[in-house]
């Protein structure tokens, strides 16, 4: 987590110090920031993400995807438990070899389902990380415009600084400006497609034992 934060902070500093281009037609969306005149500014990157419409939209999609996966996992778990109980109940009525084969097939099915669901979970997490990265990339030019309006040379991630004056924090102004420029991020290419993972079907019951001669 710390390495990722350092990486994102480096991206932020590099882009802003290089003079990222501001979004056109936005001269006065953050008057509060323009009143700050300082060579150094700070921003709370976590708050910027959490409080903007864009960040909230990303988290809402992540929650919806996660909730859907949790519900699917529960349905699959219940189906597997039912099948396992049924197989256990039939154990004494089956030849040992047949029961062993059915049990092995059930274990393989359960493992396959588990692997598929874990892949879906990773895909959802990867989608979220990609959208968070796109948010940062889209927000950098907006923050750059606030930096220039304040006559600053650099903007630092507040969480990477030990001590700073509250007066140089532009997080509130940045949230307002990002909302004005980017909105929820759904109008452009900011939103990534949903994970393309093949749905897992509800496990079918174990086959009935073969008729005994």
Automatic annotation (TrEMBL):
Keywords: Signal
Low complexity bias locations: 189-201
Compositional bias per record (Pro residues), positions renumbered to this chain: 202-213
InterPro entries noted in UniProt: Chaperone_Skp, Skp_dom_sf
Segments traversing the membrane: none
GO molecular-function terms, A-Z: unfolded protein binding
Signal peptide interval: 1-22
Protein name as it appears in the record: OmpH family outer membrane protein
Organism for this UniProt entry: Paragemmobacter straminiformis
């Amino acid at each position: 987590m710390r390495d990722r934060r350092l990486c994102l902070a480096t991206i932020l500093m590099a882009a802003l110090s290089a003079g990222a281009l501001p979004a056109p037609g936005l001269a006065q969306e953050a008057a509060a920031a323009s009143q700050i005149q300082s060579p150094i500014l700070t921003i709370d990157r976590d708050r910027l993400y959490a409080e903007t419409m864009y960040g909230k939209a990303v988290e809402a999609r992540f929650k919806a995807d996660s909730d859907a996966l949790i519900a699917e996992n529960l349905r699959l778990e219940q189906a597997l438990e039912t099948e396992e109980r049924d197989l256990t109940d039939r154990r004494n009525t089956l030849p040992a070899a047949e029961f062993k084969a059915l049990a092995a097939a059930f274990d393989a099915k359960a493992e396959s389902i588990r692997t598929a669901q874990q892949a879906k979970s990773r895909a959802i997490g990867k989608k979220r990380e990609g959208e968070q990265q796109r948010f940062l990339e889209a927000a950098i030019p907006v923050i750059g415009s606030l930096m220039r309006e304040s006559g600053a040379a650099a903007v630092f991630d507040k969480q990477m600084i030990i001590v700073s004056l509250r007066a140089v924090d532009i997080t509130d102004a940045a949230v307002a400006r990002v909302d004005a420029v980017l909105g929820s991020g759904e109008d452009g290419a900011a939103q990534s497609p949903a994970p393309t993972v093949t749905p897992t079907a509800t496990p079918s019951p174990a086959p009935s034992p073969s008729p005994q001669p």
